[in-house]
Amino acid sequence: MAQAPVQTIHRDPQLFYWILFPITAVMILTGILRHYATVLMASAPKQLDQKTMREQRSLLHGINVRTNFHTLSRKSFNARRDALTAAYESGAYLKDPERRGQAPPNPMSDPSSMEGMMGMMKNQMAMVIPNTLIMSWINAFFSGYVIMKLPFPLTIKFKSMLQAGVATKDMDPRWMSSISWYFLCIFGLQPVFNFLLGSDNAASQMAQQMGQMGPQAGQMFGPGVDPDKQFLAEAENLAVIEHYSVLDGIENRLLQGIKA
Amino acid sequence: MPQSAELEIQISPIVQESLVHNSKTLYNLQSLTASLFGVAAGILGLESYNGFLFYIICSLLTTTLFYILRVAAPSSTTSKSSGIFDTSRYFKSSSSINFEFWTGGLMNGLAGFILTWTLFYGLVRA
User: DSSP assignment, residue A31?
Assistant: First the structure.
């Protein structure tokens, strides 16, 4: 066989109505259902008490002043720096001023971090279960025949995956069974979900979000870090800064801009 | 006083939220048009290489139109534009020609393109 002949299989046109459209409709609907289920099941954000909030926010304030000091004039920067440094060193922002020298609570026993982990596991479960169910439903009802032809050729190796129920040797890998239509839909319906549900929908970007959320939460709010030491370190950072402002020399820049 | 490049960034800072919004807009546009091009390719009955070539050409055309109609006009009035294909006013890029802007659409929309292409190829060819 020099050139493989084009294999055309004459198919029942009703095939489309009974197989393609139902699978596509089911996948779109379960995606939407999953999105709304995630929205409804999401627990409300935990309400921290005022002292804890003040402790965390004051540290953020110090970091912001350190990063953006160039937007302030010298006088306002000095005022902020003096106020913050005095407060940090006297421990005025601490949650429990009596426990200043002691070790912070153990992160595993601290109940505030458990709820974060449960939330992530719930999201993962919401993603995995519907996909498994749909895959088993398709294998039960729609196996044993090919549905459609891919417009582009594939290698022989894909045949075992894409033509799951049909055991022929010579059929072109371009003919696919319904399970391969299912796989195509998983990847290809993400733009549709984006379009229907807005961009932060819960139906498609789970995998990306899982990877990104992991390393971020650690650094400052993890219960294993001592806030007193953080305050003192921040006070030292603030004291070291050599201040300049973008407002210095602004008259020259303005004149140069006008001159041209 | 720091050097002039750093000072430039401090005088006109780059707002992260705006950058994210710009790239999200571009992403949405490219995904949507990729799916529509899949419909066109399926109806036309294009086969393997022709189909992908069609996709690449049309995706680049979409990005060029987006650039001409939205990005080029305000950029040319600022003093920093470097050459005719400058997207630095709206998108942050690591090199002077912003490859991510022009070619990112190909990767983003590929899944949607293949899905609608297969669907309509099967429907129309029958």
Answer: H
Q: With b meaning 16 or more CB within 10 Å and e meaning fewer, what string describes B82-102?
A: eeebbbeebeeeeeeebebbb
ipTM of the complex: 0.74
Position A160, amino acid: S
Shortest distance, CA A87 to any CA of chain B (angstroms) = 28
Q: Any idea what DSSP says for residue A175?
A: E
Q: Best mutation site among A20, A152, A212, A248 for testing chain B: the one with the most B CBs within 10 Å?
A: A152
Closest CA to B114 of A185, A31, A62: A185
Give the span between the Cα atoms of A70 and A243, in whole angstroms: 7
Which two tokens mark A113?
A: 């971090």
- Going by the DSSP 8-state scheme, the letter that residue B90 receives in this structure is T
pTM assigned to the model: 0.74
CA–CA distance, A22 with B88 (Å, rounded to integer) = 46
Angle at B122 between CA B106 and CA A22, to 5 degrees: 95
Sorted by sequence, the CB contacts under 8 Å of residue A243 that are 6+ apart come out as: A69, A74, A77, A78
Q: How many whole angstroms separate alpha carbon A113 and alpha carbon A225?
A: 13
d(CA B6, CA B8): 5
Residue keyed to tokens 């820049």: A253
Residue for token digits 């000072």?
A: B7
Tell the burial category of B31 from Cβ atoms under 10 Å away from its Cβ (0-12, 13-18, 19+): buried
Chain A residues closer than 8 Å to B34 by CB = 191
User: Does residue A132 carry a pLDDT above 80?
Assistant: yes
Q: Report the relative pairing of strands A146-149 and A175-177 from DSSP bridges.
A: antiparallel
Q: Which conformational region is residue A45 in: left (phi greater than 0), alpha (psi within -120 to 50 degrees), or beta?
A: beta
Residue B80 near chain A (CB below 8 Å):
no
Q: Confidence class of residue B57 from pLDDT cuts 50, 70 and 90?
A: very high
Task: For residue A211, give the H/E element and its range.
Answer: helix A206-213
B17 at A interface, C-beta within 8 A:
no
Q: Which residues contact A38 (CB under 8 A, 6 or more apart)?
A: A123, A126, A202
* A contacts of B1 (beta carbons < 8 Å): 244, 248-249
CA A199 to chain centre: 12
Give the pLDDT confidence of A135-157 residue by residue, as tens digits.
Answer: 888 888 877 777 777 777 777 67
- Alpha helix (H) ranges present in B1-126? 4-11, 16-44, 48-66, 72-77, 99-125
